[in-house]
Every structure is written in structure tokens, then in C-alpha cells.
Amino acid sequence: MSPTTIKVSIFDDHLPLREALSLLLNGTPGYQVGGVYGDPVNLSEKIEANIPDVVLMDISMPEKSGIEAVKELKGLFPHIQVLMLTVFEDEERIFQALCAGASGYMLKNTPPAQLLQAVREVYEGGSPMSPSIARKVLGLLQKFGGKPHSDPYNLTPRETEVLSQLTRGLSTKMIAAELEISYETVRSHLKTIYDKLHVASMTEAVAKALKERLI
Amino acid sequence: MSPTTIKVSIFDDHLPLREALSLLLNGTPGYQVGGVYGDPVNLSEKIEANIPDVVLMDISMPEKSGIEAVKELKGLFPHIQVLMLTVFEDEERIFQALCAGASGYMLKNTPPAQLLQAVREVYEGGSPMSPSIARKVLGLLQKFGGKPHSDPYNLTPRETEVLSQLTRGLSTKMIAAELEISYETVRSHLKTIYDKLHVASMTEAVAKALKERLI
DNA sequence: TTGCGCCTCCCCAGAAAAGGGGATTGAGGA
DNA sequence: TCCTCAATCCCCTTTTCTGGGGAGGCGCAA
What we know:
Radius of gyration of chain A: 25 Å
Oligomer: homodimer
Largest sheet of chain A: 5 strands, parallel
Number of domains of chain A: 2
Distance between the termini of chain A: 50 Å
Shape of chain A: elongated
């Protein structure tokens, strides 16, 4: 296949880097530099003046952070793919940047060839990330999806089960039917659950259980 | 640098693929095949008999799913890196596999060279993913960290507010006090909330709201 | 003007949940 | 053996929710 030419705009406050990237992209078949900017002020005008396929975005820039810029950009031009290109590799910023709508995250020490590859990948719908970034993203994912908090309230197996039915939205009566025990037994379990969780109603128990991932 | 030789074990129920992978790995300098297995039964024994650096793990296998296997494996040998190698690309399985402890996720249609590269990357602490997988992982991350689901139920501002107090575990009376409106007004809002969410109780409303990130 | 949606408040009857008891099994440990 | 604890079930009273109504005010748009 003959690859389409990808038009890339650059936002970075570091002039030498901007120039190096421009040279690299313009010097490589299949890539073409659109706009090159030192900050994301008046972002919409800059983008509209020269609409790119892919934006390379730094995080630390004067006036406005790259993360804010991504949010704005994706709000206005959802089809433009954003590839973060920064030195930061702390979970917090990675998370924010990706949630803001970036589709890739590369570190600035990435070799040119891989950077070009990453630009193409993000253009083609992939999500290139530097290896260490990818590992951190997995870490974040595991943190969110991670296992239920291991019982900081000493719930018995049965109580846990009742609580879990509660979080499905079932009423006392329905839980009784579901677990094939009597209504009064469910009530009994509920009482001790309330004690242990320090709550006083189904609503509160469900809220606490879901917020603290007890189930 | 001269790359270390990486010892790779393979779990996949598809014989031709096992053989192809073995040939590929053993035929490439820097890679060496450890154990090759058709299923993860007696996993600990298999691993102990021949401890690998990296495990290639299929998901659909007889007897036991690859996801279960990863969980067990990472529990027993946390230092062994697992690279999923499967045909599945649904969010659910990707999520489960990665949460189970896999450090990479490649599709089976990946070209050999990239597969080798992925094995090395996972061995070196990266988290290689096929482009489409990476994009889905980002989607998952955004879903978790992302903003509240933008009102698929057409809740009015006031209703949203009531719902949000509900998810804090407050009772009708408490919400009335909190919002400084009458008890009956809160009830009124609750009724329309129930209608819109298709639920019939506070418990259910809280469960739905928290699970679908409506607040 | 006439609707319409949103927010506000009210009443009533029946259902469900909460709070307070108490009681019986069976398993497992002291 | 005795004791504890999880799990099961029961009763009674009070409080809270639910479901069915209705109704007035306000802002906005047709």
C-alpha cells in the first residue's frame, strides 16, 4: 500500500525541538508539517487556519497546559488525533492527558523512526505509547478494575452475598427469593451488615459498597 | 548491547500455532522456547518444571480459561511476565486479562517480527499491545476516569442533584433538608427519577446511578 | 395567548424497611 | 465439654418509601 501523507501540527514551547520535528517530518515521505506553534493560545484559530490530521502536543507550555489544550481541541475537532509528546511520565499527568482525549503518549526521548511510526499509528486509529507509559496505563487500569477491597469490614460470606444482591438493586423480598432463604433471615443479615458498615439503610449500604468496591 | 536470551513458554490449544511459535522463537537468536502446552491444567507443575521469563497465553483453552491461568500464574510467580496472544478483542476480555495480571496483549494476526519485538518488550518491562487493543484500553481508562455519563436519561438539573444526594446515602428527609426544599418535593423528584431510570426504589436508583456513572 | 417543562408543594393508602427484641441449629475451637 | 459464631427464622412497632392522585407558579417558545 502507498501510505497517505499525514499532516502534522506541533505544539511545543521548545524552539529547537519544534525545528527538529519539522525537519524530520518534512524530510520523510508520507509526512507533512502543518502548523508549528510555541503555545496553544487561540488554539481554535490556529487549528482552523491549517487543519492537521495529527497534533503533537507537549504538556508544559506557557499560558495553557497541553492537557487543557487537548480537551479544547477534542471538543472542537473530535476527528483530529492527538499524540502527546512530553517528558512527563507520572501517572497523574498520563491519566489526565489520556482522559482529556489524547490517543497516544510518547516520551520525548523516543528515537525518530519510532516517533514517525507512532504518528502513523495514531493516524490509523491505534494508540501508540512508549513502553514505560503503556505499563503505567495498565497499572492505572488495574487500579480501577482491581479486585474488590478485601473485606475491611469483616463481612461473612453470606453477608457479602446479600450485600452484592443489594447492589443489584434488589429488595429484601427479592433477595430472599434469590438466595432461597426467608425474608426474616435476609433482614437479619441486613442488620449486621448495617452494623458492620456503620450505615442505617439499604441506600447507604449500596452507596458505600459501590464506592468502596466492597463487592 | 547484546540482548539476553529470553525463555518463553507457550499455552495454546491450537497445535499448529504452538509449533509455528516454537519454530519462530527457537529459530531466532535471543529467544528460546521453554515449555509448550495445550492447556493450563496443573499450571504450577508445568511452570515449575521449566521456569520461563515470559509466558505466551491464549484465552480460549479447554478446561481452564487463559484469564484464570494468568491470575494463578501471577499469584505464584509474580516475576514472570505474561503476554496474552489471542483473537479476542472485546473490551470485556481485554479488561479481565489485563486486570488478572497480563502485561501485554497481542492479537494472533500480528506479524512474526512484531511478535518477537513484543516478547522482548514485555520482558524488558514494557506493555506491548496491538494498536486496536491499545485504543480500547484507552477507551476503558477514559470510561473510568472520564466525566459522568452525559445524561442518557434526560434528568433535569434538580433531578440530577437529588440523585447525587441519594448516592451519598441520604434519605428523602435528609435530602429535603440538604437542598432546602420540602419533603414532598424531593418525593416528587424521586418519582420522576424512577420513571426516567426505569427503577422502582432508592436502592435500585443508587445502584444504577453508581454503576453507570450518572453522577 | 397558549402551551410545555421544570420546580415546587400537598394528601392518602398500602408496602417496605428499620429497630428492637428473641430463638434454633450446626460447625469448630478452647 | 462448653462456648462462640455464622446462618437460619420469628414477632411487634415505628418509620420511611412507593404509587396514585392533584395543583400553583414561572419562564420560554410557538
